[in-house]
Amino acid sequence: MTELSRRECMALGIGAAASLAGLPASAVEIAPSLDALARARGLRFGSALGAGGQSDEFGDPRYRSILLRECGILVAENEHKWPFLQRGPNDPHDFRRADAMVDFAEKHGLLFRGHTLLWHKPQWLPRWVNEHDFGSQPGKEAERLLVNHINSVCKHYGTRIGAWDVVNETVSEQTGKFRETVFTRHIGSEVIDLAFHTARAAAPHARLVYNDYMTWEPHSKTHRDGVLRHLEAWLKRGVPVEALGIQGHIGTENSDSSTGFATGREEDWRKFLDEVKGMGLKMLITEFDVHDKGLPADIDKRDRAIADYARAFLDVTLSYAEVEQVLVWGMADHYSWLQDRWPRPDGLPKRPTPYSKDFKAKALRQAIADAFRAAPGRGQRTEL
Ligand code: XIL
């Protein structure tokens, strides 16, 4: 069971802090919010949410109230992805689901990140793109589809969306090489240049981000190296990438083999972050959660291990002033995408997010709060 620390109680302005410390977190309202704690260090905090693309936590008033209480930034879990916006090559984009969330964010003074203009992985491109007849001038047709998509989305939002994950996951974690898609077949690897340049022209105000899931675990070395080499090449060619989105899906391996938490990763992770920093890029943690597939069933033990692991990762990562935001991939366990993927061998629900199914703050919430408190300050950005 998550407990409030003495300090947390003091922050709540509760005089009898000593006697309250030890109460379940659910017994008292959690304050200050994660975004307030982040802001105190020049950081921002936010979360993903779905509005019917695949899940509909936006329709859940309890979830919305957690978002409003804790977050300064929101991002659509699926609703800004190409397959969710455009049904066919000649169909107009349908922004209704996504717009409902952006409207909600604006109404409540929250910022909204755009995720993602090009998820450059065949299984996440629209099926109709993969199966499209590219005709006698396939390069031109591929370019037309992509440019039309990026322009339509960026222009629809204008300055309402201040940052775009222009490209998501184009580096293979197995080989460190570029992924092959219909776009590489017809345009070549310059499809990435095209996506960024198109986004730059269509959203001149926006921060343009490359987002991927390389992380600090040993199995991620090939992926990390691949991402570094690609970032380097893009920057050398003048591709307008400004920041690296570190998804931050940490924990057991992001595959079907459960290994538990690995060790010996801080040094490698620092080397990676140092290189990204050396390239002059900003960094964001864009999809943080902790995969607990390999951890014991016991909830207290599991939550403790998750929190400690998260804290260690955040401490190292947030020690870099270039890291400006932390977004979690969902605030409550039962809505987490990880519930449907790579199930635990014991079949138990996973606990990857800061709040439990009954919307009680967990040890992970405390770990994120403590990591913000411990982080060195950095210059506050007002935009995304
Ligand atoms: C996931 C969503 O959470 C799922 O609902 C969907 O089925 C697949 O995509 N990396 C990303 C996110 O960049 O877009 C992914 O989101 C999780 C991994």
Protein described:
By secondary structure, the chain is α/β, with parallel strands linked by helices. The chain folds into two domains: 1-31, no CATH class; 34-374, TIM Barrel. The protein contains 14 helices and nine strands. The two termini are 35 Å apart. (3S,4R)-3-hydroxy-2-oxopiperidin-4-yl beta-D-xylopyranoside is lined by residues 54, 77-78, 168, 213, 247, 287, 337.
Which descriptors would you attach to this protein?
eight-stranded parallel beta barrel, 38% helix, alpha/beta, 2 domains, 14% strand, binds (3S,4R)-3-hydroxy-2-oxopiperidin-4-yl beta-D-xylopyranoside, TIM Barrel, 384 residues
Structural class: alpha/beta
Computed Rg? 21 Å
Total strands: 9
Alpha plus pi helix count: 14
Q: What order do the SSEs take from the amino end to the carboxyl end, as H and E? A: HHHEHEHHEHHEHHEHEEHEHEH
CATH architecture of the largest domain: Alpha-Beta Barrel
Portion of residues within helices: 25-40%
Mean pLDDT score: 90
Bound molecules: (3S,4R)-3-hydroxy-2-oxopiperidin-4-yl beta-D-xylopyranoside
Uncertain spans: 1-28, 254-259
Strand order of the largest sheet: 1-2-3-4-5-6-8-9
What composes the largest sheet? Answer: 8 strands, parallel, barrel
